[in-house]
Structures are given as C-alpha cells and as structure tokens.
Design goal:
It is a single chain. This protein is mainly α and 92 residues long. The protein is globular. It contains five helices and no strands. It has one domain.
Length: 92
Amino acid sequence: MKRYELIENLTKVYFGQDYDYFGETGAEVMAEYRKACTPAELEALRAEIVDFMRSHPDLETDFPRRFERPAQPEDFGSTIREFLDSVLAALK
C-alpha cells in the first residue's frame, strides 16, 4: 500500500467532483464513507491523517501538492486543516 493511499481515496472518491452523490454535507459524506469501511480501515485513515498533519505543518501548501483539493462542504470549514480536523472528528 502506498503512503497516504486512504487520504487519496477519500479526497478523489468521496470528496471529489461528484461528492454530492454521497451527501449534501460533509457529515453525510463521512457517514457513507464509514458504512463502506471496516473499523480497521477507519483507524488506518485516522492514522494517515494524523501522520500527514504532523509531517506537513504547512497544510495549505503541502496538501494540494500531494492530493486533489477536496470539495469542502460548508460544515467542513474552508481550510485544509479544518477539513482534516472535521474528517478526524467524523471518524470517532
């Protein structure tokens, strides 16, 4: 498995161009994501996000270099940090 593969999947599929297929809000999208994943996969995504955030202090610059910029529903904030924090909260 390549590094940060789960973040890439989340941003391309669930928060990609057609994210509204999964829901109108970030919370709804994450509810669909949780349904599709095992507890181990959810924990692995959480670990990837924490690792990425610790390894890349300039998230606004570093995240778009690595991943597609996710569609950000209003309830998931306007910055990459707010988005990732919202995803982490939804994984609990």
